[in-house]
């Protein structure tokens, strides 16, 4: 994909549709609308970073592609660090491209609880298939390296189910820079797949353009107001008028935008995420995780509620993970080639919130773990430790500040039946969703069954906000599937409205 996509003058544009955000949701909407022949403008707050210009240094890569350089957290006890992409392609530029579908049992539960129409495993299957085909979902051939073998060995020796993982990829070179923007275009992010196709059909993409407000009158969005930044840093006003408006800015910034625009009901009050606790495992022999692909197997015995997997590992990222307890663990840097980074992830019962604050660029994000979540985190951490020792670990350090680490499998059970220490446990997540759930249960849902915001005729949500609850898997395929579905529904609704207008005018 070529071009800078950066505005150089104030703009007032008219279009059939405007899409706010260029990640998995926004790009999927763009693919549907441009294929139908609509004129589309897409607005993206971040810039475009081609893989050929992506830095291999964390100190440069994080500020370039991650919101706030990766320094974002949901406030609570404890705070939970979270990651969001910020740039053309959104989170698909910095994620691991793991391809997984939401379990059928969860889809059925959500349909019943939220009263979502035409929402079943069978109804969603074609959209999942389209998403998987788009990113060339495939297993990675050949040897995957010791980090993957550790998960496989640990799980199988304990008698647990272990699953190999598909990724959205073509000719992956194993650069191990998935979190830094893929340097060779092998990861099938949106900047490699759907965005070039939509631009080829005529879509106009404006990067470095932050949407500030939706102007709503008589139940319709009449204008999308934004502020672009040109190459000199000067602010440029941008106004878009469109028949259809899609907010695809993610589970944090979609509700924040809607709130800034005067919309509040059920918006931003039900944020969910995957609380994740990490552990560093030290082995007698070199793991050389920096020279291997990220672990491409996962322990799936306890899904959808608990999942154990492995993280991207580079010396700089490893050092950042040790910084949470540098005083106790700095010496591990001397042994970094023998270390691996692994995690346990849960589906939580707790919820959080997103609140747009007057004058603040970033919204206030809160999250409260439920008592059951503390139990689940203790269990998944215990299981993670058991798997590491079963695979031959010499020592395992859980992500708990001040913890001296475990030296054998018997020690890891200390948290099986008691909560983790709230003030010293370090949690993170890279999966955010559920802040604008869909359905016909007006007491629970911000949108209707097809993503249309209640009371607003032409405004739709199509991103992770729309996933009703935590799916227990990487959410990208679910985001894309729901976004395809929303876009098709919006097209059908728009077509019916045009027919009705013609009928009224000719009556």
TrEMBL record:
Highest taxon, organism lineage: Bacteria
InterPro entries: FAD/NAD-bd_sf (IPR036188), GMC_OxRdtase_N (IPR000172), GMC_OxRtase_C (IPR007867)
Glucose-methanol-choline oxidoreductase C-terminal domain span: 365-483
UniProt keyword Oxidoreductase, yes or no: yes
Coiled-coil residue spans: none
Domain Glucose-methanol-choline oxidoreductase N-terminal: 69-275
UniProt key word Oxidoreductase: yes
Keywords of the record: FAD, Flavoprotein, Oxidoreductase
A molecular-function term among this protein's GO annotations: flavin adenine dinucleotide binding
Protein family membership: Belongs to the GMC oxidoreductase family.
Protein name: Oxidoreductase
Origin species: Rhodoblastus sphagnicola
């Amino acid at each position: 994909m070529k071009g800078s996509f950066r505005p150089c003058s104030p703009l007032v544009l008219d279009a059939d549709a405007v899409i706010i955000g260029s990640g998995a949701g926004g790009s999927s909407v763009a693919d549907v609308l441009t294929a139908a022949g609509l004129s589309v403008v897409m607005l993206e707050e971040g810039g475009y970073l081609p893989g050929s210009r992506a830095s291999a240094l964390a100190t440069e890569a994080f500020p370039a592609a991650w919101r706030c350089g990766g320094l974002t957290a949901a406030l609570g006890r404890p705070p939970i660090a979270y990651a969001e992409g910020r740039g053309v392609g959104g989170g698909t530029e910095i994620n691991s491209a793991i391809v997984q579908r939401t379990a059928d049992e969860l889809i059925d539960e959500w349909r019943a609880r939220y009263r979502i129409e035409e929402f079943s495993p069978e109804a969603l299957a074609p959209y999942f298939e389209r998403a998987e085909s788009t990113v060339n979902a495939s297993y990675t051939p050949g040897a995957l390296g010791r980090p993957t073998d550790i998960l496989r060995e640990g799980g199988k020796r304990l008698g647990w189910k272990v699953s190999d993982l598909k990724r959205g990829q073509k000719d992956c070179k194993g650069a191990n820079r998935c979190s830094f923007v893929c340097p060779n275009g092998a990861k099938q992010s949106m900047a490699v797949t759907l965005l070039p196709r939509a631009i080829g059909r005529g879509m106009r993409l404006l990067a470095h353009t932050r949407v500030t407000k939706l102007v709503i009158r008589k139940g319709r969005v009449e204008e999308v107001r934004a502020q672009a930044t040109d190459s000199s840093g000067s602010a440029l006003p941008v106004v878009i008028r469109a028949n259809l408006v899609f907010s695809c800015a993610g589970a944090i910034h979609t509700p924040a935008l809607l709130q800034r625009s005067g919309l509040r009901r059920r918006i931003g009050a039900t944020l969910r995420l995957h609380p994740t606790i990490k552990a560093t495992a030290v082995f007698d022999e070199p793991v050389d995780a920096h020279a291997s692909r990220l672990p491409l197997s996962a322990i799936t015995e306890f899904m959808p509620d608990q999942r154990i997997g492995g993280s991207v590992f580079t010396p700089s990222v490893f050092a950042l993970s040790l910084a949470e307890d540098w005083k106790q663990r700095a010496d591990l840097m001397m042994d970094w080639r023998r270390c691996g980074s692994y995690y346990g992830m849960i589906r939580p019962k707790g919820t959080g919130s997103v609140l747009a604050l007057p004058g603040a660029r970033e919204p206030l994000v809160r999250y409260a773990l439920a008592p059951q979540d503390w139990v689940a985190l203790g269990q998944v951490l215990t299981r993670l430790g058991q798997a590491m020792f079963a695979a031959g670990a010499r020592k395992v350090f859980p992500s708990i500040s001040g913890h001296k680490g475990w030296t054998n499998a018997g020690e890891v059970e200390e948290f099986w039946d008691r909560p983790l220490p709230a003030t010293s446990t370090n949690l993170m997540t890279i999966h955010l969703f559920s802040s604008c759930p869909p359905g016909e249960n007006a007491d629970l849902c911000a949108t209707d069954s097809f993503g249309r915001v209640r009371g607003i005729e032409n405004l739709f949500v199509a991103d992770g906000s729309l996933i009703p609850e935590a799916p227990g898997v990487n959410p990208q395929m679910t985001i894309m599937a729901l976004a395809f579905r929303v876009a098709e529904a919006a097209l059908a609704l728009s077509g019916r409205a045009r027919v009705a207008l013609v009928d009224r005018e000719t009556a």
